[in-house]
Specification:
- The protein is mainly α and about 110 residues long.
- It is about 50% helix and about 5% strand.
- The protein has a two-stranded antiparallel ribbon with strand order 1-2.
- Strand 1 and strand 2 form a beta hairpin.
- Helix 1 packs antiparallel against helix 2.
- The longest helix has 23 residues, at about 55-75.
Length: about 110
């Protein structure tokens, strides 16, 4: 029996979270939620509020459109955390960049305006 067998630690597993219908990771569940919200809104508008078929369908497609915009605009094919970074940027947080609007530049005491 040979005892000079060399063992090394390897990571042969893929770092991917998988794909469903071409969507990365758990994005499939965002799509399912958007479809579910659209169907629920459609029937509530049509049956309870007695809106017309076209108006109900048009309004009910908004949650699905928002989910698709989120999936394909901010998550699919983007690096992890891209959506959070984008929302922080839109809300005005600049992260670790200096805030130039409130920057105080010290003046020399003998400098006159």
């Amino acid at each position: 029996m040979k005892t000079d067998l060399r063992l090394t630690d390897t990571n042969a597993a893929s770092d991917s979270k998988g794909r469903t219908w071409g969507l990365e990771g758990g994005l499939f569940w965002w799509l399912v939620g958007g479809i579910g919200a659209a169907i629920t809104a459609f029937f509530l508008l049509l049956v309870l509020l007695k809106m017309t078929l076209g108006a109900s369908l048009g309004i009910a497609l908004l949650p699905l459109a928002l989910c698709l915009a989120y999936i394909f605009g901010l998550r699919q094919g983007k690096p992890p955390g891209y959506d959070r970074d984008y929302f922080e940027f839109v809300m005005g947080a600049r992260g670790f960049t200096p805030d130039t609007d409130r920057a105080h530049i010290p003046q020399h005491p003998l400098y006159e305006f």
